[in-house]
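Following up on my earlier thread - several people asked me to post the actual chain instead of describing it. Fair enough. Here it is, all 234 residues.
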Amino acid sequence: MRLLAITLASSITLVASHTYAQAPAGQAPAPATQKPPAPATQKPPAPAPAAPAPATQKPAAPAVPATMPKFQDGFKYAYVNMALIAAQSNDGRAAAEKLKGFQDQKTRELQDKQKTLQAAQQKLESGGSVLSEGARTQLQSDIDRQQRDLQRLTEDAQQDVQNLAQQVEEDFTRKVLPIVGKVAQDKQVHFVFNAQQSGLIWAEPGMDLTSEVIAAMNGGAKPAAAPTPPAPGK
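Reply from S.P.:
Thanks for posting it. Predicted structure:
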C-alpha cells in the first residue's frame, strides 16, 4: 500500500508539472507554442488501425466449424492396441527379451559390486579391534571408494537401460507402422488410432485391427490367405 501511495503521488506530481508547464506557455507566445501541441494530439488516429484487428478475427471463428463436417464425412476409423501387439507379436517378444536380458545383466553386475562392498563392511565391523589403525583407515577408504563406484555404476546402468528401451521401442515402431498401414489399406480405413494414447474409452469392436496386425507381423503373407476358408464352404 505504501508503494502504491508513492507511485500515485509521483504520478500526480508529474501531471501537476505538466499542467504548470502548459499554463505559462499559454500566456507568453501563446499562438506560436499552441500549434506544436496540435500535431502532438495526432495520437488518437493511432488507435484507428487497431479497430480492423478484431474485425479480422471474426471470420476466422466460423471457418473452423465449417471444416469439421468435411473431416467426418466419408471417412472410416479404426484402432489398435499397441501394447497387445508388442506382447503377442514375434518382433515385440524379441524386443522385450532383448531388453530384459540387458536389465538382468546390469542387475547381476550391481549385485556383485554390492556383495563385495558388504564383505568389506563386515570385515571392518568384525575386525575393528584386531586391525591396526593404518589397516582400518585403508579399509574404510576402500569402502568409501566402493560406495562411490556402486552409486556411479547404478546411475550408469539405469541410463543404459533407458537408452536401450528407447532404441528398442523405436526399432519396433519402424517395423509395426508399415504393417498397420498395409492392414488399414486392405480394410479401406482412413485413420488408425492407438487405443492407449488416443484416450479412447469406447469403440466398435469390429474396428479393432489389433489381431490383423499381429497376424501380419507373425505370419507375413499368411493374412492374405485368410479369405480361403469360404471356398471349402461351397
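The mean pLDDT is 74. That should answer part of your original question.
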